[in-house]
């Protein structure tokens, strides 16, 4: 007895055979399948291991340290300054925005771990949740890859970093949710993105895959919670739009050097305008800049360089940027700089 196949089934089998025998189509098919698997299994990243929420007074405070440039030899001045700021400001969360360590002086895994231990201690001792993105110097000449370094950060009890990225060789595209003071639902969000290190012709840039990740995450959060969650975004290398904002926006702060922006603009700022959830983008990288400029209702700003190990203007004191968000109006935020 012959089993009759439906025309639809025969058509599907023939298409599959055609793909198998066509090498180009097969590569496209397998690549698409891999992307689908990645998005389905890891697009949201790992479960946030510490629940963050607004305080009973309705506020949430963040400190941004940037460009610490720690080495295997502990820089006592850097660490003491971090401790002083933490003791004074008493933040709810701390963000390190890249060039946390100096890769060329942390060549081995042991030296990388030693440097990270030193900059982790101020937060860990005080039981303050914290997270990082990497800069262009973190793994420069180091044997420890970006993913390897992120895994070290993730090993600390109070660290909320993640090593996921849509781009090979990068690590740290993730988000962190903050719930209301009653601990009911997320009302604020933080995006963290790896802006890369170097590329032909200049500094690294946020790639199209990462922008797609951001857009997909923004849509997923809206679908899950029913609204666009107001957000801040942090990475290391400034956007090309930072200079445009300085020229044409509402400006506060210092611009003591020319911007060294991402080498290419793949459309992140345009996506931020379209999605509408990100209210501010903050970076490091340029040690003598700490300005904040608002353009098209998005704040583009710098943290204040924290470390004494890198280049800089001797008259431009090291510091940190502080953010205060109020749960009654998460569309807005207050920010200021504290220096030595």
From TrEMBL:
Domain spans labelled Calcineurin-like phosphoesterase: 60-288
Transmembrane segments: 20-39
Gene Ontology CC entries for this record: cytoplasm
SUPFAM superfamilies: Metallo-dependent phosphatases
CDD domains on file: MPP_Dcr2 (cd07383)
Translocase recorded as keyword: no
Sorted UniProt keywords: Hydrolase, Membrane, Transmembrane, Transmembrane helix
Coiled-coil stretches noted in the UniProt entry, renumbered to this chain: none
Stated name of the protein: Metallophosphoesterase
Domain of life of the organism encoding this protein: Bacteria
């Amino acid at each position: 007895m012959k089993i009759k196949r439906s025309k639809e089934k025969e058509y599907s089998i023939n298409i599959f055979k055609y793909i198998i025998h066509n090498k180009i189509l097969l590569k496209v098919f397998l690549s698409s399948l891999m992307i689908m698997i990645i998005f389905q299994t890891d697009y949201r990243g790992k479960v946030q291991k510490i629940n963050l929420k607004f305080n009973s007074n309705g506020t949430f405070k963040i400190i941004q340290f940037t460009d610490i440039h720690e080495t295997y030899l502990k820089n006592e001045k850097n660490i003491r300054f971090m401790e002083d700021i933490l003791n004074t400001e008493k933040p709810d969360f701390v963000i390190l925005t890249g060039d946390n360590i100096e890769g060329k002086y942390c060549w081995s895994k042991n030296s990388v771990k030693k440097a990270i231990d030193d900059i982790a201690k101020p937060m860990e001792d005080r039981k303050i949740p914290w997270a990082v993105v990497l800069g262009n110097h973190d793994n420069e000449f180091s044997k420890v890859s970006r993913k390897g370094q992120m895994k070290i950060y993730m090993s600390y009890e109070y660290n909320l970093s993640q090593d996921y990225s849509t781009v090979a060789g990068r690590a740290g595209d993730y988000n962190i949710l903050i719930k209301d003071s009653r601990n009911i639902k997320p009302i604020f969000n933080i995006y963290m993105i790896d802006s890369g290190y170097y590329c032909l012709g200049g500094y690294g840039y946020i790639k199209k895959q990462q922008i797609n990740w951001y857009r997909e995450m923004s849509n997923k959060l809206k679908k899950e919670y029913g609204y666009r969650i107001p957000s801040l975004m942090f990475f290391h290398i400034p956007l090309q739009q930072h200079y445009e904002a300085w020229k044409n926006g509402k400006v506060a702060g210092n611009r003591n050097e020319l911007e060294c922006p991402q080498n290419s603009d793949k459309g992140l700022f345009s996506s931020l305008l379209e999605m509408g959830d990100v209210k501010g983008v903050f970076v490091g990288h340029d040690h003598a800049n700490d300005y904040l400029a608002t353009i098209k209702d998005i704040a583009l700003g710098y943290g204040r360089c924290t470390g004494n190990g890198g280049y800089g203007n001797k008259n431009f004191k090291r510091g940190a940027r502080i953010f205060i968000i109020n749960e009654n109006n998460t569309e807005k935020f207050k920010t200021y700089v504290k220096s030595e």
